[in-house]
Write a structure and sequence with these properties.
The complex is a heterodimer. Chain A has nine helices and ten strands. Chain A is α/β, with parallel strands linked by helices. Chain A folds into two domains: 165 residues, Rossmann fold, CATH 3.40.50; 66 residues, no CATH class. In chain A, strand 1 and strand 2 form a beta hairpin. Chain A is globular and about 45 Å long. Chain B has one domain. Chain B is built from eleven helices and no strands. Chain B is elongated and about 70 Å long. The chains are: A alpha/beta, B mainly alpha.
Chain lengths: 238, 262
């Protein structure tokens, strides 16, 4: 589904990604974890086309990143910081995005709007939305558009407990129907519960990538993460 | 519906929500009314107020014709204040999308850079062209009422010539808005360059042939004398080539991801 090979990225002299290799299979929920500055957002920004890489190859569904619009049609990206026009209503935004993906499903749209409790606010300009509401808006758009893969950068930030529950439920439904999810997160307990695969990124390199059931055993993902950090010679908790 | 239509529709929705759809046509209507009304009442105003300062109107002065007044609307009102207002209304067209992350957001969707740019340029152009046309037609109505009527075909052809110059203004401002990050700089560069283009009109026939602003001169010429020189073809060609060039530069700039600070 998603294949990242030998991804490298530098800003001036600083190397941010140092040969990232990653494969996300169809039907997988992959949690991309790592300390601040590990390169998670940079990796997602390169995959989604916001940034170019210095070296490496990316493919989704066999389509290389260079194939442009067909490649972009394979995923829906929810960034951590959501900046959209403030004077347009939430509903207009979702309709706009649905048109871009040539995917209209009013029935599903209404269902997700209700599930996320946005019946009233969806008609209001997005300038009146909180950070969490903007995340909900894009989650509604993502699930309605139903692309082959949903890529998210810290999707749970700002979500209220009810929205987190809805999010978990919809993610499972989406994957059962053949969707694939790739998201970065700091919340290791959430990653442990939602994901079936985890990749840990440290200093621009994947240091661990396996199925949750193979790596945690008796331990929690949190302790595995800490061990991986210490094993690599440095702990993020000092 | 293709992506271009979707983007154009979004721009229109945004213009409605920002009330641009109201204030911009009103500004051009006001500018359109000003020229014939002031030209008509100026002798009366001067007679009433200028006598004390020794300002008088030559009683043998030839009466202005409708075409001359309408040409002044284009040359004085629209080409000065009008151009500045268009630039100010457009200076954030790409810059604000870059600054707030909207450009990055849109370009992670199945949209080509050229669809995004053409959606921006064409929606803004259509909207500005309608505002200019509205102001021009109101000016025509007042001119016909207060002065002499203008040949209708000349009126329409002159408007089309003028709108070619407006197209260049829109695409040039879009390019500057893509390259620079400060709205003040964008406004300054656009105003200085485009007004300089306008001021240079008439200085040299060679420059006129490659100056997009000379489309404004051809429009005025048509209104005043009822015909225009064959040089209009060169000016038209130059205006379209320079417009295409600005779009090409804008596209290349965004495609190279120079919008993203790395």
């Amino acid at each position: 589904m998603l294949s990242v090979t030998n991804l490298e990225k530098s800003y001036s002299d600083k190397k941010i990604l140092n040969g990232v290799n990653l494969k996300v299979e169809k039907g997988e929920i992959l949690g991309f974890v790592g300390a601040n500055g590990a390169g998670k957002t940079t990796t997602l920004n390169i995959i989604t086309g916001i940034l170019d890489c210095n070296n490496g190859k990316i493919e989704i569904n066999g389509l290389p990143k260079e194939s442009g619009i067909e490649y972009k049609r394979q995923f829906f990206f929810i960034p951590d910081t959501i900046n959209i026009y403030k004077n347009i209503s939430g509903m207009d935004w979702i309709l706009f995005l649905m048109n871009l993906y040539n995917n209209k499903n009013d029935e599903k749209l209404n269902e997700y709007v209700n599930l996320f409790g946005m019946q009233e606010s969806i008609k209001k300009p997005t300038g009146t939305y909180s950070y969490g509401m903007l995340h909900k808006l894009l989650l509604i758009a993502a699930f309605t558009i139903n692309p082959p893969i949903i890529i998210m950068d810290e999707p749970l930030n700002g979500l209220d407990p009810n929205a987190v529950l809805v999010f978990k439920r919809l993610i499972k439904q989406y994957v059962e129907k053949g969707g694939t999810v790739f998201f970065s997160t700091h919340l290791l307990d959430v990653a442990e519960k939602i994901c079936n695969t985890v990749a840990i990124l440290k200093e621009g390199k994947i240091i661990l990538h396996d199925q949750i059931k193979n790596i945690i055993g008796e331990k929690s993902l949190e302790s595995i993460f800490m061990e991986a950090q210490i094993y690599e010679g440095k702990t993020s908790i000092n | 519906m293709n992506h271009f239509n979707v983007l154009v529709k979004k721009e229109f929705v945004q213009s409605v929500r920002e009330f641009k759809i109201i204030w911009l046509p009103l500004v051009f209507i006001f500018l359109g009314i000003t020229q014939p009304v002031v030209s008509y009442y100026l002798p009366l105003i001067l007679k009433a107020l200028g006598g004390g300062q020794g300002i008088t109107i030559d009683p043998n002065m030839a009466a202005q014709k409708g075409g001359e007044v309408l040409a002044s609307t284009l040359g004085s009102q629209f080409d000065q204040l009008g151009v500045m207002i268009i630039i100010v209304s457009m200076m954030g067209i790409i810059q604000s999308d870059k600054a707030n992350g909207m450009l990055a957001f849109i370009l992670t969707r199945p949209v080509t850079v050229i669809s995004y740019i053409s959606g921006k340029i064409i929606s803004n152009y259509l909207f500005i062209a309608c505002s200019v046309a509205l102001g021009y037609l109101v000016s025509y109505a007042y001119t016909s009422l207060l002065f002499t009527a203008v040949n209708f075909i000349d009126l329409l052809v002159a408007l089309l010539f003028y709108l070619v110059w407006i197209l260049f203004i829109v695409s040039f401002t879009t390019m500057i808005s893509t390259i620079f990050n400060s709205q003040g700089i964008i406004a300054l560069i656009s105003i200085v360059f485009l007004l300089a283009c306008r001021i240079m009109v008439g200085l040299s026939p060679v420059i006129d042939n490659i100056n997009p602003a000379s489309m404004s001169k051809h429009a005025m010429e048509l209104l005043i004398v009822g015909k225009t020189s064959m040089d209009v073809i060169w000016s038209l060609l130059a205006a379209f080539i320079f417009t295409a060039l600005t779009i090409f530069i804008t596209n290349a700039w965004i495609s190279k991801k120079k919008f993203h600070s790395e």
